[in-house]
Amino acid sequence: MTSAIGPFAINSSFISSASGLKTIVRIHNTNTGNLINATFPVFEGQAVADGDFAIDGVSGTGAKIELAFVNPAGSKTGMLLPTGNAVEVFDGVPATCIDVANPCVFVQANNFSIPGSILPEALEAHPTLLARLDRIRRQASAAMGLSTDEASTPPSTPKIAMISSPSSHPLVSGQTLSESSVDLVIRAISVGQPHRAVPITVALAIASAAKVKGSLVESMMRNQDSVHPDGLTLGHASGTL
Fold first, then answer.
1. For residue range 159-218, what is the model confidence (pLDDT) as tens digits?
2. Is the C or the N end of the chain the one with fewer CB within 10 Å?
């Protein structure tokens, strides 16, 4: 949704830009108080829609919109690590709680006796997993100061996701994701449902957690070189990000 704001502002004449240039629109996220810079091409006063840029899990192609989140730490809690620790334990499961662009909770898939490459349909069909993940999420919410107790935890905050080491496995499309193409595999849950890709704010949080010494993400990445020089490559149920 954030990527649509800049082009909408141009096309609705809230702001103007010279044709043939990349425009930067500074967005104030009033939910978090953070700033986001959106960069995209403009032609004849309108945001360019057509292009060959593709994102796994998103239909079709289009013009590339680059988002830069400015100082995204502490979006809701004011702290990178809201509990003060890189690892906590909820419901007997180690977890990393981090607040970057969105408060998130990361747990390792192997603590639930499932493959980290599990697909959304299998996640939904599992008799106990989603309920247990939500119980962990609610306990983490209270520990992060986002809610007073488990019962008052909002359905969408914090996000929770399972992480695992790379492995070759099928995607929802039927294609195969190669082990060598990603640094980490992630399965995100959004409002109680398995996500077919990964929300951008969750991706930002996990990339940040990879740099936090002692976090579950950092410990998994510690002795591993990134597959891409520009940063972390995540494997999700529809491909990579």
1. 999 999 999 999 999 999 999 999 999 999 999 999 999 998 999 999 999 999 999 999
2. N
Cα torsion through 106, 111, 113, 119, rounded to 10: 10
Burial of 18: CB neighbours in 10 Å, binned 0-12, 13-18, 19+: exposed
Q: Which backbone phi and psi does 82 adopt, to 5 degrees?
A: -60, -30
Nearest to 140 by CA among 154, 125, 127, 119: 154
- Distances 22 to 16, 35, 40 between C-alpha atoms, Å: 12, 19, 5
